[in-house]
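#dry-run=false #mode=assembly
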Amino acid sequence: MTSKDERERLHALLWALADSLDHESGAGAERSATASGDADRVRALLLDGIQAGKKRRLADARAQHAEAVAAYRGSTSRLPSSAGDRRRLLGQVMERPKVKELVLTIQHRELRDMNDDDVESLLRQLEHLGVLDNLASKKSP
Amino acid sequence: MNQGPQYATDAEVKAAVVALSDDEAHVLRRAAEFRARSLVALGLGVDADDLLKEAIARTIAGTRRWRRGISLVQHLKMTMRSIASHLRDKMNLDLDTPREDGQKRYKLVAATGHEDGDALDSVMSRTPAADAVVAARDELRLIRERFASDQKVLDVIDGLESEMTGPDIQEVLGISDQEYETRIKRMRETLARDRRGP
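#status=ok
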C-alpha cells in the first residue's frame, strides 16, 4: 500500500468508478425498484438547471453591457467645447466616405438634420470607437 | 440563442432532457453521485444534484456548450467530470509541503481566482483536513469490509487507490478487459446500492 493520504486514495477510487460510467449509455443500467421516480427527479433537476443557465446567461449579458456603458461614460472626451466647433469637426469627419457611412448607419440622417446634442453624442461615440484618433493621427504632420 | 450550427440550441437541450429515458437518467445520476463523492473524499461539500444541475446550467449559459454529434448523456458526463476536475485542481493538494516534524502532509489551499464555477463554488462547504482524513479512512475501511469476501474486487480496489489505470490493473492482475469491467460494475452496483439503503 502506498503512503498516499486516505483522502487521495478514496478520491482516486471513486473518481475511477465515475469514469467507468463513461461507456454506459443507459442500456442495461443498474437500476433499483424506485428507478422511475428517480428518473423523473433527474429530468426535473435538469429542467431546473436549464432555467438557472438562462438566468446566468442573462446576468452575464447585463454585466457585460453595464461594463461597456461604464467604459464609454468614463472615457475622457477631447471634443471641442463649443457647439459650432463640434459641428465643424463632425463635418470634417464625415468627409471620409466610410465614416459618413458609419454615421448614417448610427443616426439615419445627414449632419444638417442633427441638433447640437445629436452632434455631440455622435462625436463621443466616434471618439470612443477611435475614429477621431485615426483621423487626427492621419492629419498630423 | 444561436450558438452556432455545431452546437445545440436551448430548445434542443430541453427536448433532449424531456426525452431522456429512465436508464439514461439513471446513468447520469450514478455518474453525478460517484463524481461528487470523489470530491467529498477530498473535503469538498459537493452534492450530486448540484453537480448535475451545474453541468446543464453551464451548457445553457454557454460556457460548456453541447456539441451536436454526441449524446446529451455523454456531454453531461464529460461536463461534470470537467467541473469536478477544476474544483479538485482548485483545492491544490500540496504533496511536498513538509511539517515541522519532517512528516509530509497535505495542505488544502483554496485558489483565489474565480471562473465560471462561482455558482457552485459559492455553495460548497469545505471539511477541515483532519476531519476529511478521518472520514476517508473510515469510508475506505467500510468499502474493504464490504468486499472482504471478494478478493477479485479488492485487487482492483488496490490498483484504483494507487491511481493505476484500467489497462495497467488488467496487466498486473492478468485479467481481460471484460473481467475488469465485470469487477468494476460489481463494485459500482454494490456501493451504489449500499448508499441508497434499503
